[in-house]
Amino acid sequence: MLNIELNDLIKQIITTQAESQTIEVKAAHGGTPKRLYDTLSSFSNQDGGGIIVFGLDETQNFKPVGVYDLQDLQKKVTEQCNQMIPQIRAIFTITEYEGVNICSAEIPSIDITNRPCYYAGAGKVKGSYVRVGDADLPMTDYEIYNFESFKSHVHDDERPIDRATLSLLRENDINNFILQMKLNRPGFSKLSENQIYELLSITRNNIPTLASVLNFGIYPQGLLPQLAITAIVVPGETIGDITSDGIRFLDNKRIEGTLSEMLDEAIAFCKRNIKVQTIINPNNGKREDRTEYPINAIREAILNALIHRDYSIYTEGTPIQICFFTNRLEIHSPGSLYGRMTIFDLGKARPDLRNPALATMSEFLLKTENRYSGIPTIRREMKEYNLPEPVFENKRNEFVVTLYNNQHTSNNNEDIDLIRFCKSPKSRKEIAEYLDIKTTSFVTKEYIQPLVDAGKLKLTIPDKPKSKNQKYYSD
Fold first, then answer.
1. Residue 11: count of CB within 10 angstroms of its CB
2. Does the pLDDT value for residue 170 go beyond 60?
3. Which residues have CB under 8 Å from 413's CB, separation 6+?
4. Where is the Schlafen AlbA-2 domain (predicted)?
5. Which of 345, 372, 404 is the endpoint of a domain?
6. Are strands 50-54 and 100-107 parallel, antiparallel or unpaired?
7. Rounded CA gap, 46 and 398, in Å?
8. What sign results for the dihedral spanned by CA atoms 44, 45, 50, 53?
9. Per-residue CA distances from 315 to 140, 173, 312, 334, 458 (Å)
10. Are 111 and 71 a contacting pair, CB within 8 Å?
């Protein structure tokens, strides 16, 4: 970081009066903060790392108070960095601001194969942290496991289910699957049945795997009760909304069976609960029925959840959720994105496969291509329907796909209220919470950007409009 960049960052922090996902502020005029381990861990464990700024006092509205001793500060911060596993190499920058010395320490992101980064004195379980907004929070057991399983190439869809036996699987379906595999892989014909079962992950050490139970089980939920789908229709825009006569859910169903059966039944549930309108096709002038959401997009979203959800012991008690609201459809998949995949890579980069056995079986059983086309299909279908872009959210313990219908549009009253709300600078997250909308990307596109374009909202960092630390304000 250059001196001028650090000065700009200081101005931004003072203007916004806030820390952020990548910025932590420490006073340090009375000495080096003694416990930086939480922030060192959380910044190292997130893509992009983060910056600790020493010399601003948050308790005095981020007033520049300076650093007690620049050389000693850098030495003692480095000592704390050396107590992390793996060790951290901070990059320091010094500048003078309003007559006092300010120092920043850039904490680099470590490679995912070395995560989690943790404080050696506390150990991996208690010393690993994750950044959430401007807070450093202890990693959950699941988050630690997510890193460890990726490093060790552990695939939970291949784990044996102790109570399962071959008698609980559909023999004809397995035989048809093996026959299809033999047609595509002639070498399989030379193997014994037991060898084929093991190589195709139907069994592991002669015990049926999770993948085979979910694909060939006579009743999979008898062994894995919560590996199902729950589907609801809410008469409003938030959970808890009720109708005038007190009805909480307009439709409510638990969907069980094999992956194929759950996919079919889930789509049937969605078709039953989405509106259908008649339109005039502009290309041929004919009247056509069009569903509220594109069925192909819904199918791909549910299919992705079934195949790519986390099936570890940490999430096997959580079903996939389909939630219809008056303005949107949400599909919640247990477990965050796997491996190196990020939200920005979806549909563009080849992902690391969390469940390779399920993915292979799905090519035959669910008629999928397994060519990473699901996300592009969802985007394309929503665009063809002239609906807002789909929103993808990677949360700490789940991945959420949100499809908005054409009922959610901003109006003049909302614009006026939002402008008033932004008399003091507000972040995208704060605006989304104010509007009671979960997805910040949708809020940015549909609410914030139109007001920015109209000159009604201004940016606190105008030269970096896409900055994570961006805030918006009105005159």
1. 13
2. yes
3. none
4. 19-139
5. 404
6. antiparallel
7. 17
8. negative
9. 12, 27, 6, 6, 43
10. no
Q: How confident is the model at residue 406 (pLDDT cuts 50, 70, 90)?
A: confident
Angstrom distance (rounded) from CA 334 to CA 311: 8
pLDDT of residue 288: 78
For the chain, the farthest-separated pair of C-alpha atoms sits apart, in whole angstroms, at: 80
Q: What is the identity of the amino acid at 403? A: L
* Dist CA 445 CA 313 (whole Å): 38
**Final residue before a domain boundary, out of 120, 136, 152:** 152
DSSP 265-302: HHHHHHHHHS-EEEEE-TTT--EEEEESS-HHHHHHHH
Q: What is the mean pLDDT of the chain?
A: 91
Residue 427 DSSP SS3: strand
Residue 73 CB contacts under 8 Å (≥ 6 apart), including other chains: 28, 32, 54, 67, 103
- Whether this prediction's pTM lies above 0.70 is answered by yes
Report strand pairing: 328-334 vs 398-404.
antiparallel
Q: What pLDDT does residue 446 have?
A: 82
Report the distance separating Cα 465 and Cα 468, nearest Å: 9
> Residue 343 belongs to a domain with what CATH number?
3.30.565.60
Residue corresponding to tokens 């969390």: 354
Let me know the angle formed at the C-alpha of 206 by 202 and 212, rounded to the nearest 5 degrees.
20
Contact 374, 403 (CB under 8 A): no
The token pair at 411 is: 């109006």
CA dihedral 243, 245, 250, 253 (to 10 degrees): 130
Residue 283 confidence (pLDDT) above 80:
no
282 preceded by cis ω (within 30°)?
A: no
Task: Report d(CA 198, CA 165) in Å as an integer.
Answer: 14
- Domain range for 208 is 156-218
CATH of the domain at 469: 1.10.10
Predicted pLDDT of residue 414 = 66
pLDDT digits 0-9 by tens, 104-137? 999 999 999 999 999 999 999 999 999 988 899 9
For the chain, give the percent of residues with pLDDT over 90: 65
Asked if pLDDT for residue 369 goes beyond 70, the answer is no
Helix, coil or strand: residue 239: coil
**Are 254 and 302 within one domain?**
yes
- Distance, in Å, from the CA atom of 256 to the CA atom of 263, rounded to the nearest integer, reads 9
In the predicted model, is pLDDT for residue 349 greater than 80?
no
Number of structural domains (the chain) is 4
Report residue 410's pLDDT band, with 50, 70 and 90 as the boundaries: very low
Please give the angle made by the CA atoms of 177, 178 and 181, to the nearest 5 degrees.
90
